[in-house]
């Protein structure tokens, strides 16, 4: 399993548009081959900050998504709302809390 965490900071007046775009596309992303999990989190102290947390079958599955038309469309409609450069981490899941 391959885990991807992306931190994004948005212009305050663009958050509703970002959330609408995420809502419109989350099922498509979750249904993309190799995606095993996707959630969106909002910063508690900085509500302009959001984090996507996703599990992928492997790194190749994530790269296939990143090369897809779906990703290109979603990212094109997301990056215009940023007020800071996004950050991303790829990590391996070590321990399950189940």
UniProtKB/TrEMBL annotation:
Q: Does the entry feature the keyword Oxidoreductase, yes or no?
A: yes
Q: Residues of the signal sequence? A: none
The reply to whether Oxidoreductase figures as a keyword in the UniProt entry is yes
What PROSITE patterns does its record include? ABM
Alphabetically sorted, this entry's keywords are: Monooxygenase, Oxidoreductase
Where in the numbering of this chain does the ABM domain appear?
Answer: 2-91
Q: Which SUPFAM superfamilies match?
A: Dimeric alpha+beta barrel
Provide the GO MF annotations for this entry: monooxygenase activity
Against Pfam families, the record matches this protein to: ABM (PF03992)
Q: Which domain of life is it from?
A: Bacteria
Could you identify this protein by its name?
Antibiotic biosynthesis monooxygenase
Recite the lineage of the species: Bacteria, Pseudomonadati, Bacteroidota, Flavobacteriia, Flavobacteriales
């Amino acid at each position: 399993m391959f885990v991807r965490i992306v931190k994004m900071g948005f212009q305050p007046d663009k958050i509703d548009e970002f959330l609408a775009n995420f809502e419109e596309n989350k099922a498509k992303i979750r249904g993309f081959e190799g995606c095993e999990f996707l959630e969106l989190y909002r910063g508690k102290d900085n509500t302009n900050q959001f984090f996507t947390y996703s599990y992928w079958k492997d790194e190749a599955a994530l790269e296939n998504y990143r090369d897809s038309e779906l990703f290109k469309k979603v990212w094109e409609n997301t990056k215009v709302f940023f007020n800071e450069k996004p950050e991303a981490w790829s990590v391996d899941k070590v321990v399950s809390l189940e």
